[in-house]
Design goal:
Ala_racemase_N, about 25% helix, about 350 residues, TIM Barrel, PLP-binding_barrel, eight-stranded parallel β-sheet, Alanine racemase-like protein
Length: about 350
């Protein structure tokens, strides 16, 4: 029994090559569940792409990629003082990632002070506060930051920006560059996120002396949706009549048909969904319709049978789900693999098959 991700390897790699070509000096991002593909697989692909730096989300993810990618490793989540102390007390040994390969992100003056006053010269990227309003040192503190850089090996500055189309990325980045220069801080490299190839070209033309490194995750790994597909194995088919009771809470079957037991449950991320971004009336209407159905005890499953997504018979179990198939649709045979519509960043597959 397995929830499986099938990857058209040739097509997927052709897409990766195309994205890398459109983003010179790209830094692939491999974090979380590895965008569904797994962190180790993404690290191997980054090595194949011959990039020099791979970004991970957290320090805990370093060990999962270090043996599969030979270059530098950038940690995107900003480091904090307590973690700095633990790192300073630790020595590289068996199972530890060579600290000389690791670049930490710093987003607070307090943490930069601890690093600067500590032993050695740790490699850091200083993240500046952006329109995202998430992490970052305010540009008003740049003069103070500049004085602390002697105690670290500064690999540049970072700006985490909103998604493309939300705000003027070029203007925001150029303003940041001007403020770094005005503060008298060194500026050789800038790490940025969510810029388009066109914006990147414009920025490089305006700032030829600055090495601009685009960090790219979703667009690199996931934007060719035809290159991969999730499928769930059909484990059981049970005929039922309207009113029959079933499941943990002995709910009644809504009509004649079949109960399909399929691989994939809450432990895989099945039925998990990020909150909807509502920006127009159509989206609002869809969200309201789905919410009304769920309030009435009906929830559409991600499993497709005979070309149509089917209703959950009851909430997903930990490793399997139960789907209701009406009598008008012949049930597939046990062992059939059913297409599944899943969120790739939310799903952990039992198997990943590169075809």
């Amino acid at each position: 029994m397995a929830l499986t991700l099938y990857v058209d390897t040739a097509r997927w790699r052709a897409h990766l090559d195309q994205v890398v070509a459109s983003y010179p000096r790209i830094v692939p991002v491999a974090k979380g569940n590895g965008y569904g593909f797994g962190l180790a697989n993404l690290a191997r692909e980054a090595a194949r792409l011959e990039v020099d730096t791979l970004a991970v989300g957290t320090p805990e993810e370093l060990a999962e990629v270090a043996d599969h990618f030979p270059g530098d490793l950038l940690v995107l989540t900003p480091i904090r003082s307590a973690q700095i102390q633990r790192l300073q007390e630790r020595t590289a040994g068996a199972g530890e990632v060579d600290p000389s390969r690791v670049i930490h992100t710093v987003s607070r003056l307090a943490d930069l002070i601890v690093l600067s006053d500590g032993p050695g010269e740790p490699r850091v990227v200083v993240e500046l506060f952006s329109s995202m309003r998430r992490h970052g040192i305010p540009t008003e503190d740049l003069a103070t930051v500049a004085k602390l850089l002697d105690g670290v090996r500064c690999e540049g500055w970072a700006l985490h920006l909103p998604l493309p189309g939300f705000g003027d990325h070029v203007a925001e980045i150029n303003t940041c560059i001007e403020r770094i220069r005005d503060a008298g801080a060194p500026l050789e490299r800038l790490w940025v996120s969510h810029v388009t190839p066109e914006e990147l070209a414009e920025l490089r033309s305006a700032n030829p002396e600055v090495e601009i490194r685009p960090r790219v995750g979703t667009k690199l790994w996931l934007s060719d949706r035809e290159a991969y597909q999730a499928r769930a194995e059909l484990l059981e088919v049970h005929p039922v009549r309207r009113g029959d009771r079933f499941g943990y809470r002995q709910r009644r079957v809504p009509g004649d048909g079949h109960l399909l037991v399929v691989s994939g449950g809450t432990s895989h991320g099945v039925a998990l969904e990020a909150p909807s971004h509502v920006e127009d009336l159509r989206t609002r209407a869809r969200v309201l319709a789905v919410s009304s159905l769920e309030a009435a005890g009906r929830a559409l499953s991600p499993f497709t049978v005979a070309g149509q997504r089917r209703w959950f018979a009851e909430p997903p179990h930990m490793q399997v789900s139960v789907v209701f198939l009406p009598a008008s649709v012949p049930p597939p045979e046990v062992g059939t693999e059913l297409p599944v519509n899943v969120g790739m960043t939310l799903t952990r597959f039992d198997r990943i098959v590169f075809e």
